[in-house]
Amino acid sequence: MQYTIESRELTTEYTNHLPPQKEPRRTTIEARDAGEAIHLFVDLDDAELVSFTNPRPGQESIATIRKNDSVFLVRVYAA
Questions:
Q1: Predicted pLDDT of residue 22
Q2: Are 25 and 7 in contact, with CB atoms under 8 Å apart?
Q3: Residue 20: what pLDDT?
Q4: Residue segments in the chain with a per-residue pLDDT below the cut of 70
Q5: Which of 33, 35, 55, 64 is the one with CA 20 to 30 A from 43?
Q6: Whole-model pTM?
Q7: Alpha-carbon distances of 22 from 4, 9, 17, 46, 69, rounded to whole Å
Q8: In angstroms, rounded to a whole number, what is the distance separating the alpha carbons of residues 35 and 6?
Q9: CB atoms within 10 A of CB 63
């Protein structure tokens, strides 16, 4: 199954800049489920998974990832 992953940079106390206000970055990943999709995305993006919520099937999942000094809000849903 294909999953769309949208990531948007958040502001943190450790960054001295505001994230650019633009469309989220979208990536499509082939995976068995949303959990596998986010783990593949994290590996491909060389990032660290901070948190992940996986509600009932058919609803979007939400994750927070960290890459370098930035934190990203990530949405995962069936494409």
A1: 73
A2: yes
A3: 62
A4: 11-21
A5: 55
A6: 0.82
A7: 18, 10, 15, 22, 19
A8: 14
A9: 25
Both structure tokens of 44? 């491909």
Overall number of domains in the chain: 1
DSSP string, 11-75: --TT-SSPPP-SPPEEEEEE-SSHHHHHHHHHHHTT-EEEEEE--STTS-EEEEEEETTEEEEEE
HSE, CB side, 13 Å, CA atoms: give it for residue 23: 4
Token digits of residue 79: 């494409």
Q: Which two tokens stand for residue 50?
A: 């901070």
- Cβ atoms of 61 and 78 within 8 Å: the answer is no
Q: What is the predicted pLDDT for the residue at 11?
A: 67
Residue in 1, 2, 24, 9 with CA at minimum distance from that of residue 73: 9
Residue range of the domain that includes 45 = 2-78
The predicted structure's pLDDT at residue 73: 93
